[in-house]
Amino acid sequence: MTEEKKEKDPRALRLSLVFLVVFTMVFSLGVVVGKKFIPPDEPVLAEKSPGLMEKLFSFVSGGKLPSNIGQKPAVTPDEKDTSARDKYLSAMINPDHKYTIQISSFLSRKVANRTVRFYKDKGYPAFIREYSPSEITTFYRVRIGTFESKEQAREYGNEIKEKERDFKFYVTVND
Fold it and tell me: Are the CB atoms for 97 and 174 separated by under 8 Å?
């Protein structure tokens, strides 16, 4: 028997290359999209890896595991601060005041909620107003604070603009 040298078909090489490129793109997209589905700040429970937790606490505390391992605390200090801050910021929003600062408008409630949370975390009294120009479309307007006069609103907006990068706003009627 003689060994024959097999020639590689150029079409098969092209097909393999196309498959490799498409597979890489799909995999990369899956990784990027998958990151959005990971729940934020999920507590790590001891039941997931008891061996590691036992080893850690045996090293730190002489072998005794605390009784509350694996249990979620009732309210963390951050949650207390967040709820108190949210109540304080909500009190700064008076529906009777005529003017407000609008910073953006979105078609997605989810994006609007993220933007509000971003500004609330920075200490600004942000909120959302829905606007439906038609039965088909709803805009979610992100606004900060309420004010009795245009001048007060403009001054506050300029204060924020000095602190925040790329902050754009306009003063509008609080409707």
Answer: yes
Burial degree of 147 (CB within 10 A; 0-12, 13-18, 19+):
buried
Identify the weakest region by mean pLDDT among 11-15, 130-134, 135-139: 11-15
| Dihedral sign, Cα of residue 46, residue 52, residue 57, residue 60 | negative
Place of tokens 């080893």: 55
Q: What is the mean pLDDT of residues 118-124?
A: 90
Instruction: Give the pTM.
Output: 0.51
Q: How confident is the model at residue 116 (pLDDT cuts 50, 70, 90)?
A: very high
As a whole number, mean pLDDT of residues 151-175 equals: 90
Other Cβ atoms closer than 10 A to 45: 13
- How would CATH label the architecture of 77-173? 2-Layer Sandwich (3.30)
Cα radius of gyration (the chain)? 28
Q: Phi then psi for 42, rounded to 5 degrees?
A: -70, 125
List the chain domain ranges: 8-37, 39-72, 77-173
Rounded (to 5) percent helix, strand, coil in the chain? 50, 15, 35
